[in-house]
């Protein structure tokens, strides 16, 4: 009887896992179509959807992450980490499966990108190669950047800690960003400083962060 119950439990567990994989895969198909359109619109070197599907490691890493993140949220953490590891080996891009990434996320070129566990990325964000979204603490807490909608981060930039990069902001290539950047601003240099004018003033942005962090 016990062997029968164990067999039934194993069968039920396998069925549940298979249904989870199927649901995740179906949702991923819609995101793939959207991501391909995004690549075609943002990269003038892209010639066709087939080219993007086959030869854009940045997208391959994002798709692998979406699957790994789904497993991570369902407590299949070992499987999620394994998939993330394989993706890093295949693409040269490291995205922790715990990172939260929005829609139409595009990594151009991609090699050397590192995205940490508690990173939060909004919609329509674009990263170039060599970007690091890293932590500044060894504690199990929010320790990586929050990147709001529409942000562009240049090649080789390093962003550290639980800072917020406001919507539509830009970070210059090779910049080191240790403080939050208000929306619509541009930050460049090491350490990064704001240049030009911002549509939302710095005090308004700091007040918004004080009221509970980035807006949804």
TrEMBL record:
Domain named Serine acetyltransferase N-terminal is located at 18-62
Q: Which UniProt keywords apply?
A: Acyltransferase, Amino-acid biosynthesis, Cysteine biosynthesis, Cytoplasm, Repeat, Transferase
User: Known EC number(s)?
Assistant: 2.3.1.30
Task: Fetch the PROSITE patterns from UniProt.
Answer: HEXAPEP_TRANSFERASES
Catalytic activity line of the entry: L-serine + acetyl-CoA = O-acetyl-L-serine + CoA
UniProt xrefs under NCBIfam families: cysE, EPS_EpsC
Q: What PANTHER family does UniProt report for this protein, alphabetically?
A: SERINE ACETYLTRANSFERASE (PTHR42811)
- Protein name from the UniProt record: Serine acetyltransferase
Q: Which organism is it from?
A: Halobium salinum
User: Corresponding gene?
Assistant: cysE
């Amino acid at each position: 009887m016990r062997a029968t119950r164990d067999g039934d439990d194993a069968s039920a567990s396998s069925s549940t896992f298979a249904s989870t994989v199927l649901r995740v895969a179906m949702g991923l198909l819609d995101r793939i179509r959207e991501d391909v359109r995004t690549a075609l619109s943002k990269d003038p070197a892209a010639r066709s959807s087939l080219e993007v599907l086959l030869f854009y490691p940045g997208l391959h890493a994002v798709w692998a992450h979406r699957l790994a993140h789904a497993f991570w949220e369902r407590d299949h953490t070992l499987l999620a980490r394994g998939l993330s590891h394989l993706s890093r080996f295949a693409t040269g891009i490291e995205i922790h499966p715990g990172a939260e990434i929005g829609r139409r996320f595009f990594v151009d070129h991609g090699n050397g990108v590192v995205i940490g566990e508690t990173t939060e990325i909004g919609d329509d964000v674009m990263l170039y190669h060599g970007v690091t979204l890293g932590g500044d603490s060894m504690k199990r807490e929010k320790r990586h950047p929050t990147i709001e909608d529409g942000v562009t981060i240049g090649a080789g930039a390093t962003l550290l800690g639980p800072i917020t990069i406001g919507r539509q902001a830009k970070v210059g290539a090779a910049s080191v960003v240790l403080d939050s950047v208000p929306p619509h601003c541009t930050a460049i240099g090491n350490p990064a400083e704001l240049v030009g004018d911002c549509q939302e003033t710095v005090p308004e942005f700091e007040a918004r962060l004080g009221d509970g962090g980035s807006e949804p």
